[in-house]
Write a structure and sequence with these properties.
The structure holds two protein chains of two kinds. Chain A is an all-alpha fold. Chain A has helices at residues 2-7, 15-37, 46-63, 81-108, 112-131, 135-153, 160-191, 196-204, 211-228, 237-244, 247-272, 277-299, 305-324, 332-364, 378-381, 383-397, 403-417, 421-447, 461-479, 482-489, and strands at 70-72, 77-79. The chains are: A mainly alpha, B mainly alpha.
């Protein structure tokens, strides 16, 4: 026995590279344990604890900047510019969601400790996703994002809608995981490895394998991810789930969880499958067009702010998918530009969408209404809230010259550079449709009179901070876009 | 002062107002005087910096870009932060700073319904940055950002503080302008991708001109044309203007008329003509014809108006027609006249909108038929109205004259490649337009200023003559209208060299 044990050697683990995940894991555990010992009226302490942990995680991320690429855990875990960019983004979005959640869960007397624990676990999934470089860790990461989210969605136990939301999300989620896993097993069968770089090597070899099986597996993997990022026609769960779940959870699903899915997709497509881009490019072109167009057209008819944000969020995913539809094997500069534009879009989208959700949550605190009709005259009642929400919506619409405009411009330029003009036209038309429904809300808030008995809305200070930070970040990007473009440039896979 | 001359003076004048916007947001809502003082202070500071820029400008070399800066901005798409002024942009740069400041003074006294001075002042300052920036930006993307910065504040200004049909007017304004600017952006991108050098630098593009084939130039010009022509607005893209002007609050109308319309004509002169000269020659006859239609159509519409503010709005269509006619001639006289006309229209029509706003405040109506006898009841106010209206109809000796006469002069002998016969016909059309313009303005004066005081207003309650604050806000405009009329070299002396450089592209 002892001899056997001596044969085992400590594998060489780069602990520093893992530090953000370690800090986050520790925080999640501490939150869960501390919660056990807290009296009922002090359960809220879990939130500042989680926030402190996220700041610690962010510090760990910062400490890894400029240290070069690191590969550990036998090459399945990589820390590079790409990973750090998204880890940082997940920290920021995580903090924003925490700020949005605090008053909501405290006032509702939900299980606060459990909620924050689940939220941190889901974020952890996003963090590991950014570094995963083999099929198994990618699959574990996506499940780590999803499974806590199923539970969070069902947090309003007494509400039938919340139960419906969770059930739909769960069933779709499990189905998509199964499809994805099937695709992954096929590609493993064909190449005999789970490491992404090795998959790429085997695929590029001339003697390669049956083209059919590769195409099939890529197709299944893409479909699995399409569920996660709610691309049309795999989007049906999203609006119902967002509406039924507690709205801070909807904010999380629409930002961090969706971006997590995109991260996995980008890693797979650019590290494992770049050589067979010809097979998957058309899939993404179709998905992108459908996602943008259907998302925007249905959003036109929404009366519920969360559903509006859900459908608009679907449409927004479409613009990122456009970037994936531009990839051509071998065209390095052009691919790099498309890749960067996807990163820029995701980062800006995450911040502005979180801001819009924060404003919607703040508004719903009084009277609990989510109906857009009730937003009329908000400017007379709460000028700051109305102005900030208008700012986020205008940014989501991509109206120049705000930050969301730059996000769309970079994708647009990449499309023209790749000479896929028809996609550029579809994008342009969609941007115009989207502007309509975003501006309708803005118009309601500013140009229509408020209802007579409507008073000002008290916005909790933490949500104020969250909105302020998001707005400041967007203004900074608007004035000086290189803040994000420089980062994207150093984040090529 | 080295930093000042290296472009940061211009940047300071451009960005001081937006800093003012941010400062305003953090001041308490209730302290109305403090808010107004802050807003005025920032506008004044920007104006002072602007005057210093004008003082340090080397008028001997007004054809060159001066006091400029060229800094890295977004390297990924080769967009740079390039600002600077030459003889074409300097007058407009100073004009926009001046008019914004005067609007601030005007707001001391009268904040339109529904109040909320903080938001209104913040929007005026935001507009000021957008407008000023458009005149100094020398990079297409930077220009586009400033151009679009104007859109949203103006939408809110009309939509919130506007008249009864404000919602319709603001949405129409927004959609029209957005539609145009999308095509403009497409034009910019087409130029960017076509040059090979891949730059958005206007001056470098001017030197690289002509770019691409004739067909390419014509298509790109069409994109720019749509963007600029809607902003000017040229007939038949003008339908947003009467609604927007009529419904906007007084300061909104003044800023729209005095400065924002010029962004369109400035775009033609600064971007479309020098970068796409061949297409400009091809389009010039169309632009000229549309311009003359605008002149005559504007004048005829004016005759049919019963609302004083709407009348002034339609008169803008005609005046901008003269500016566009001047540009279409592609001659030294014509383009100098166009720039002169832009400044003169800014001064005069800005002043007219101030007066129309004040009429509404005194009489609570702008219906021409209901007014009368103003010279009897409030003689100073009536005289100002007469003075400004006469300046607007182009009386020699006042500012309105030179722009029109130079545009007509230019069309007698249009630039190379243009058909002199057509342009002489256009000249005659424009000449008829001046007569019609004189007719409707005199007729309006007759109805509003002369005659007996209507019974309704006979008690004179609330109807007062010009107030001190109004004098402060208006005096600079009144003086400049006279000064530019008596001594046109004030403006022409600055613009001429720059226009010659521009015309170099046309051989």
């Amino acid at each position: 026995m002892l001899e056997l044990a001596q044969g085992l050697t400590q594998p060489n683990v780069d602990w520093h590279a893992l530090s953000p995940e370690l800090v986050l894991t520790a925080t999640a555990c501490i939150v869960l344990i501390v919660d056990l010992f807290l009296p009922d009226d002090a359960k809220w302490v879990a939130m500042p604890l989680s926030a402190a942990g996220l700041f610690g995680t962010a510090a760990a991320v910062v400490s890894l900047i400029g240290q070069g690429d690191r590969l550990t855990l036998a090459g399945s875990f990589e820390v590079n510019g790409f990973a750090l960019l998204f880890k940082g983004l997940f920290c920021i979005i995580g903090l924003l969601v925490l700020a949005i959640s605090f008053h909501y869960f405290r006032a509702g007397r939900y299980y606060q400790g459990e909620y924050y624990f689940l939220l941190l676990c889901s974020l952890l999934g996003g963090m590991t996703m950014a570094s995963s470089r083999d099929l198994i860790s990618i699959f574990i990461s996506i499940e780590l994002i999803s499974i806590p989210a199923f539970v969070m969605t069902a947090f309003r136990k007494g509400d039938a809608k919340s139960n419906e939301a969770a059930l739909k999300f769960f069933l779709f989620g499990v189905l998509s995981s199964a499809v994805m896993l099937y695709g992954m097993s096929l590609i493993y069968g064909a190449t005999g490895t789970t490491f992404l770089t090795e998959i790429n090597e085997r695929l590029t070899r001339a003697d390669a394998l049956g083209e059919g099986i590769v195409t099939l597996s890529v197709f299944f993997i893409v479909v699995g991810f399409a569920f996660k990022i709610s691309a049309v026609p795999f989007h049906f769960w999203a609006p119902d789930t967002y509406e039924g779940s507690p709205s801070p959870v909807a904010a999380f699903l629409s930002t961090a969880s969706k971006i997590g899915g995109f991260v996995g997709l980008l890693v797979l497509m650019f590290v494992a499958f770049p050589s067979v881009a010809d097979t998957w490019r058309p899939i993404f072109a179709v998905l992108a067009v459908l996602t943008m167009t259907v998302g925007n057209l249905i959003a036109l008819r929404q009366q519920h702010i969360i559903r509006l944000l859900a459908y608009s969020g679907i449409a927004q995913s479409g613009y990122v998918l456009v970037a994936l539809a531009l990839i051509e094997p071998g065209a390095t500069a052009q691919n790099a530009q498309a890749f960067q534009s996807a990163l820029i879009y995701l980062a800006i989208y995450g911040i502005m969408d979180a801001g819009a959700f924060a404003a919607a949550v703040a508004f719903a605190r009084r009277g609990g209404t989510y109906f857009i009709g009730d937003y009329s005259g908000l400017w007379q009642r709460s000028p700051v809230l109305a102005t900030l929400l208008a700012g986020f919506l205008i940014s989501l619409a991509g109206a120049p010259p705000v930050a969301g405009f730059w996000a769309k411009v970079f994708v647009f330029l990449a499309t023209i550079e790749a000479q896929v003009y028809w996609l550029a036209v579809v994008m342009g038309v969609n941007a115009a449709i989207a502007a309509w429904y975003y501006l309708l809300v803005v118009k309601k808030m500013f140009l229509e009179p408020p209802e007579e008995d409507a008073g000002p809305i008290e916005v909790p200070s933490l949500i104020r901070v969250a909105m302020g930070v998001a707005a400041l970040a967007l203004v900074a990007v608007m004035v000086y876009p290189p803040i994000i473009t420089e980062l994207a440039e150093h984040s090529i896979l | 002062m080295e930093w000042f001359d290296n472009g940061w003076g211009i940047s300071l004048a451009t960005f001081l107002p937006i800093i003012g916007t941010i400062v305003l947001l953090f001041l308490p809502n209730t302290q109305e005087r403090l808010l107004k003082a802050t807003g005025t202070l920032f506008a004044l500071a920007a104006l002072v910096v602007g005057v210093v820029v004008a003082a340090r400008f080397d008028y001997g070399a007004s054809g060159e870009i001066q006091l400029g800066v060229d800094a890295t901005w977004i390297p990924q798409i080769d967009a740079r932060y390039i600002v600077g002024v030459d003889g074409i942009s300097l007058p407009l740069f100073v004009l926009s700073l001046l008019v914004s400041f005067l609007c601030m003074i005007y707001l001391w006294w009268h904040v339109p319904e529904p109040g909320k001075p903080k938001a209104l002042l913040a929007l005026v300052l935001l507009l000021e940055t957008g407008m000023t920036g458009s005149f100094v930006a020398l990079d297409l993307i930077l220009f586009f950002v400033f151009w679009e910065l104007v859109l949203v504040p103006m939408y809110f200004m009309i939509g919130v503080w506007g008249g009864p049909r404000r919602e319709y007017a603001s949405v129409k304004f927004f959609l029209y302008t957005l539609f145009g600017s999308i095509f403009m952006l497409l034009g910019f991108l087409a130029i960017y991708f076509k040059t090979g050098a891949e730059t958005f630098d206007m001056i470098a593009l001017r030197e690289a001109a002509p770019i691409g084939s004739t067909l390419f130039q014509n298509l790109a010009f069409l994109g720019l044309f749509l963007g600029f022509a809607i902003k000017v607005p040229m007939w038949p893209f003008h339908t947003w203007l009467p609604d927007a002007h009529t419904e906007a609050p007084t300061v909104g109308s003044v800023l729209l008329a005095a400065i924002m319309l010029k962004m369109g004509t400035y775009g033609f002169i600064r971007i479309a003509l020098p970068i796409l000269p061949d297409a400009a020659v091809a389009y010039a006859p169309i632009i000229g014809i549309l311009a003359v239609i605008a002149i005559i159509y504007g004048a005829l519409c004016c005759m049919a108006q019963s609302d004083l503010k709407r009348l002034i709005a339609f008169s803008s269509v005609g005046h901008m027609g003269f500016v566009m006619l001047g540009i279409a001639t592609l001659t030294d006289e014509g383009i100098n006249g166009a720039i002169f006309g832009m400044v003169a229209h800014g001064l005069i029509t800005g002043m007219l909108f101030f007066l129309a706003g004040s009429v509404h405040e005194r009489y609570h109506t702008r219906d021409i038929a209901a007014l009368g006898g103003m010279l009897k009841q409030i003689p100073r106010f009536g005289s100002l109205l007469t003075y400004t209206a006469i300046a607007s109809l182009g009386l020699p000796g006042l500012a309105g004259f030179w722009g029109e006469v130079l545009a007509l002069l230019g069309s007698y002998q249009p630039g190379a490649g243009l058909d002199p016969v057509l342009f002489r016909i256009l000249m005659v059309g424009g000449g008829i337009g001046t007569i019609l313009t004189a007719a409707y303005f005199l007729w309006t004066l007759q109805r509003v200023n002369m005659g007996a005081v209507p019974e309704k207003f006979a008690d004179g309650r609330g109807i007062f003559d010009v107030r001190p604050l109004e004098w402060y806000a208006w005096a600079p405009l009144l003086f400049l209208i006279l000064a530019a009329g008596l001594y046109p070299k004030l403006i022409l002396g600055v613009t001429d060299d720059a226009v010659n450089v521009l015309l170099g592209a046309f051989g």
